[in-house]
Amino acid sequence: MSFKVIFTWWNKQTFGTFLKTLFTGIFVGKDELGNKYYKNKKNDRWVIYADNVEATKITSDWYLWIHHTIDKIPSNEDKKYLWQKKHSENKTGTNEKYNPVKIKKNENQKKYKSWK
Question: What is the pLDDT of residue 2?
Fold first, then answer.
């Protein structure tokens, strides 16, 4: 464990989470992003992120599990439908943010029609 992990919460886990995982944590599974999920005998559930701490890095199936919505532990082998998109984290505030193409409108064109 590195020095910065002990004193900073944004590097995967805090020292308290490390101790909780070490003494009471039961490894449950890992998602495709590398996040590791744990629980204890009291059914407390938590995640240790593979990279920087970002809540939107939790996939939807693990989100349901960690918030006690479902009890079935998600699996990477679960059947996905064709219409389901691959999970992506929130890109707000980064260079990869959503930026719609701005369309230049005719200044004389109204957005509505007047009643006659």
Answer: 59
